[in-house]
Design goal:
By secondary structure, this protein is α+β, with helices and mostly antiparallel strands. The protein is about 25% helix and about 30% strand.
């Protein structure tokens, strides 16, 4: 399980947004460079902890990137994380802002970055964010004509009503 994915009914962080990036393993350096440039332009700190993640996961986690923003208090806020398991797609997550004053700036920056990523990797897919701010386990997602949705058979574990737009069709 990737960091930040909820077990059904659980929650790790409150996310504002998430997406799968269909980046091939040989393109991950390009993704890292794109994120590092974005961080520099937006007064953020870029971290690549991939080697450590590979060691601590026995090679399962193959990508671990983060972008931190310094808050007015001087404390870092880990706003954006990118991870991948094996050769699968990368998961980018955006942690919800810690204060309402930051919401507009965070939302604008998030939209800008997702737009840049979508231009480079047109197959980028939004990942549903649950009402409590968690994201579902990637294994519980199914591709539908409307995009990624949670498998209807898993709805009870997430405490979602049968008519939730986050679920696959009947």
């Amino acid at each position: 399980m990737l960091g930040g994915c909820a077990r059904p009914g659980g929650r790790v962080y409150r996310y504002a947004d998430a997406a799968q990036i269909p980046v091939a393993e040989d393109e991950r350096d390009q993704l890292a460079a794109l994120l590092a440039g974005y961080a520099q332009r937006n007064a953020m700190y870029f971290r690549d902890t991939t080697p450590r993640a590979q060691r601590t996961s026995n090679g399962r986690q193959t990508l671990a990137l983060a972008l931190d923003r310094t808050l007015t208090t001087g404390r870092p806020w880990s706003e954006i994380a990118v991870s991948a398991i094996g050769g699968g797609p990368a998961l980018i997550t955006f942690v919800a802002p810690p204060s309402a004053e930051m919401s507009a700036d965070s939302s604008t920056a998030r939209a800008e970055l997702l737009s840049v990523l979508r231009r480079r990797w047109p197959g980028l897919q939004p990942v549903p964010v649950l009402p409590d701010g968690a994201i579902p386990r990637l294994a519980d997602l199914r591709q539908t004509p409307a995009g990624l949705r949670i498998d209807r058979a898993k709805a009870a574990g997430y405490k979602l009503p049968a008519n939730s737009p986050l679920l696959t069709a009947r």
